[in-house]
Amino acid sequence: MSRVKELENKLSRISAQLNTLQEEKIFGSDTLDKTTIEEMIGLLKEEYFKIVDELEVIKKADYSDGELDLLINEHKGNGTNDVWYDIRLTNTPVYIGEIRVTYCNPIRFFGDVGYELKKEYRGHGYMLKALNVLKEPLIERGLIHPKFTVFPSNIPSVKTIEHFGGKKVGTTGFYDIYEADLEEDAKKIR
User: Fold this and answer.
1) Containing H/E element for 41?
2) Half-sphere exposure of 119 (CA within 13 A, CB side)
3) Consecutive H or E run containing 108
4) Of 38, 39, 42, 88, which alpha carbon lies 20 to 30 A from 151's?
5) Contact at 8 Å (CB) between 97 and 121?
């Protein structure tokens, strides 16, 4: 379930609780006094508005998991088959890296994914999290078997791709080619 859906479900539950408490406040409660009901209403309203604020930030992102946001960067790749996604920490303007997806390139191959993370954010699992957020737009565009090109000497990147589910499918002699299978994720999203 996407973070937006999760938050929208929480808002729904809180609204129902607020309605129930408002009725108990007006008509009386068998178990709670009015002061307790008012305190509970205050806490629920606080939680409600925090969720509304978080939703506003997330909805500004094109894709999010609540920790990382992916924003399509329209200034990069215009007129090409590339889509660039800026990676940002959720609820902040902090840019930590980017992902490029070449959705169609007759010279290379369909669905080539490349990425870069700022040095200070490496080693914390952010790229794997960002790739997991990227699954949704990949699947939306019909890219169920994305490919990754990586220098064999770039061990951290190879490990990230393997943790994402990538399997080595070839080499050009210059770099290795990995492919991930998003079939199971596509079934969940659809």
Assistant:
1) helix 34-60
2) 0
3) none
4) 88
5) yes
Residue 42 φ then ψ, to 5°: -60, -45
Per residue in 26-65, pLDDT (tens digit) is 777 777 788 888 888 889 888 888 887 777 666 678 888 9
When pLDDT is cut at 50, 70 and 90, the band that residue 190 belongs to is low
Angstrom CA distances, 177 to 102, 108, 136, 169, 181, stand at 14, 11, 22, 6, 14
**Residues paired with residue 82 on neighbouring β-strands, in sequence order:** 102
Q: What are phi and psi of 113, to 5 degrees?
A: -110, 130
Token reading at 166 = 């990538």
What is the β-pairing status of strands 112-117 and 147-150?
Answer: parallel
Token reading at 26 = 């007006």
Helix (H, G, I), strand (E, B) or coil at 45: helix
Query: pTM for this one?
Result: 0.68
List, for residues 131-186, the tens digit of each pLDDT value. 999 999 998 888 899 999 899 999 999 999 999 999 999 998 888 999 999 988 88
| 3-class secondary-structure state, position 178 | strand
Q: d(Cα 106, Cα 175) in Å, to the nearest integer?
A: 18
